[in-house]
Amino acid sequence: MHLVEKQPPFEKELTQQIKEAERELLMLHKGDRVLSQLSLTIQLYYLNGGNDEGKQKVLNIIDKFRNRYPIKSHFYSNSNRFLRFTEKSYQSAYNKARTTNAFEWYLCSGEDGSTADKYALGVFTARDNYGVSHLHLNFPIILVYEEDGRKEFNAWIEELLTQFEVFHGYAGLSIQLPYDRHPYQFYEYGVTRQYWGITPDGASFLKRDWYEGIRSINWYTFIGKDLKDKFIHQPFYNVTLKNSPEVRLKEIGNSLVIKAGELPRLGHKSKPSPLSYVVVNQLCKSVRTDIPTDAMHTAYRGPRYSLSQVYYWIRRWDNANFSKGVFDFDGIKEDLLPILGEYGNEDRIVPYSGVWTPFDFEGLAQPLIQGQEFPEEGQHQRKSGRISSKPAVWKLVSRDDGGAVMEPNPF
């Protein structure tokens, strides 16, 4: 059972913690090229981003961003490399974006997107205006240390939530990577497993799993109008807010914004969890994506956000010790989750002999022996009666030794 803070640290101590993490997480290459750094992010999933009005809204945001910050290079749809940011290349990309069905555009303060830059903006718009579009903005962590910086960050949040038809999103601590995130996903995985308050946003644009509900909570969490009724009509909603003075809620545009304290929290897994984040998570369970359908990381082997690890990551803040909406500090209940395993992942070795079944689709159960590697594929029966197989995440159904098939979150 993970402990929860009864009293948050003072602002000075929280600021010092973030500064220490900033130094710890900075990854440099030859010539002091920055490959990873702690940053502030705004992640927005929004609707109607693929129509003409939606495209113009995001182009207006891009124009404001490039006029305010030192953008040096950019990459956009159909370009095969990063281009030096000039007025000519900007206008060319701008005009193409207005007429392209679905477009990607990434702008940054680095020379060619090969470094983790202080300022970055990326957008993917929905094809044929179907589903969600995704927008992210990244800022240097220094903004969080002073009141003026926090006001600047908050002003961007207010503008985005006023301009866009928000589905959901969040803002807070992130680990900034180069545009090509793939070589660094193991590092991102390690950092965000240790610090629960830092979200792994290298693959946040992969939208399929975030059509149904929110991806994560953070310092700020956004609930759009399509999720708002479900959110505010959940049991004990008002009681939970009333008993959580650190959690602030306000409405911007058609969205609810939940703020978990005056400063973002790192959420180091070895320390008691910040109550504000645990409370926001408890409220947002009603509108989150519960079962992922895919991995967040593309690596085939090694420590990564495979589908099973995404399932556990989504639940990292879960705590069973809420009673009628109020957190019980003396509670000893433990959240129990299915035991999962997956071929090619760090949990690839079968931990218990017994019967296992595919977790991510309705498939056929089979006996597996402790110590063997999980099968890469599981079998399922088609409507025709024919047996087929496909890649599977495995869930323990029963153990030969009669032991439990549910355990505390291994994350």
Write down the Rg.
22 Å
Helical percentage? 25-40%
Order of helices and strands: HEEHEEHEEEHEHEHHEEHHEEEEEEEEEE
* Major sheet attributes: 11 strands, antiparallel
User: How would the global form be characterised?
Assistant: globular
Structural class: alpha+beta
Low-confidence stretches: none
Please, how many helices? Answer: 9
How far apart are the first and last residues' alpha carbons, in Å?
Answer: 12 Å
Folded structure, characterized:
This protein has 411 residues and is of the alpha+beta class. The protein has nine helices and 21 strands. The protein has helices at residues 11-25, 52-68, 87-99, 147-163, 185-194, 225-232, 237-242, 275-284, 307-314, and strands at residues 27-28, 34-47, 73-76, 83-84, 104-108, 120-124, 133-140, 165-176, 220-223, 247-252, 255-260, 322-323, 326-327, 336-338, 340-342, 354-358, 366-368, 377-381, 387-391, 393-399, 406-408. Strands 1, 2, 3, 4, 5, 6, 7, 8, 9, 10 and 11 form an eleven-stranded antiparallel sheet that branches. It has a four-stranded antiparallel sheet with strand order 15-20-16-17, with no helix packed on it. A two-stranded antiparallel sheet has the order 12-13. A hairpin with a 6-residue loop joins strand 3 and strand 4. The longest helix is centred in the first third of the chain and has 17 residues, at 52-68. The termini are close together.
What features would you highlight for this structure?
9 helices; single chain; 411 residues; 11-stranded antiparallel β-sheet; 4-stranded antiparallel β-sheet; alpha+beta
